[in-house]
Amino acid sequence: MARRNVVIFGASGCGKSSIVNMLSDGYVADTAEDAEGRTFQSRNFNVNVLGQPMTLWDTVGFDEGEAGTVPNIDAIVQLYALIRQLSDGVSLLMFVMRAPRIRDSVPRNWKLFREIVCQSKVPTVIVITGLELVANRNRWWWDNQERFQDDGIFPAGHACITATRGRQLAGGAGHLFDQAYRQSTRDVRELIRSTALHRPWQVPAAEWFKNTFIAVLARRIFGMNIAGGALKKLVSDCNMSKSDAMELAKRMRDAGV
């Protein structure tokens, strides 16, 4: 059975590497590459998810301020390049965010990668971390679901979890959140098993710029009447300025992927 790729993305410090460790049954991914918990390059880890071979991609985190500024362009370009370069395609996007606050950047990041980069062709799920102290983790989603829907976010599935075992208990009798952690592991594994594509999707190399960034830049910036809608989505749906959208498109083109 061929391995399928699961690309994990989200803001810096949201718990992406912790989820990799959870699914690997051990400590394989550093959870803090620097003092701010940033991962500087995408890393892959082969795991078995309920009998199915998968490759998890722990990607560069978006460096976001409290005001929800535009994600770091370097991180966006690296994630785009990764998705383009996966010769065996992508079976699942996993968007990770940390509760309790839903940042204004969440819908922008969701739309950028699900709708623009992957053209709504890849199932995208949400995993909510940071719920260690919440008695009913699943209720967090139902209490906040309407907010996501108002922002146009309709995931293929979700999991509300704790991605940490917590402090070690006295006498070496396990860790504070072990029970919740074990259930969270089961929830994430089932989420992946039930939503990942069996036939991975690949970004068509020749069609990508023709149908999105380059075509739209030509039409909207230089006045050429060429079909496309990516720049409009970047400016309106993803809340980018035209200058940021143009810079992102140029960087993706220059990346040569």
Key attributes of the depicted protein:
257 residues, alpha/beta, Rossmann fold, 2 domains, 6 strands
How do the helices and strands line up, and which of them pair or pack?
Blueprint: E1 4-10, H1 16-24, E2 43-49, E3 52-58, H2 73-85, E4 92-98, H3 105-117, E5 124-129, H4 137-150, E6 158-160, H5 178-195, H6 205-211, H7 213-221, H8 230-235, H9 242-254
Parallel strand pairs: 1-3, 1-4, 4-5, 5-6
Antiparallel strand pairs: 2-3
Helix pairs in contact: 2-9, 6-7
- Mean pLDDT across all amino acids: 81
Strand order of the largest sheet: 2-3-1-4-5-6
Tell me the total number of β-strands. Answer: 6
Radius of gyration over alpha carbons? 19 Å
SSE-based structural type:
alpha/beta
The CATH class of the largest domain, by name, is Alpha Beta
Give the end-to-end Cα distance, rounded to a whole number of Å. 28 Å
> Strand share of the residues?
5-15%
Tally of distinct domains: 2
* CATH architecture classification of the largest domain: 3-Layer(aba) Sandwich
Q: In sequence order, what are the helices and strands, one letter per element?
A: EHEEHEHEHEHHHHH
- Count helical runs: 9
Q: What is the molecular shape?
A: globular
How much helicity do the residues have? 25-40%
**Unreliable parts:** 33-37, 65-70, 206-210, 215-228
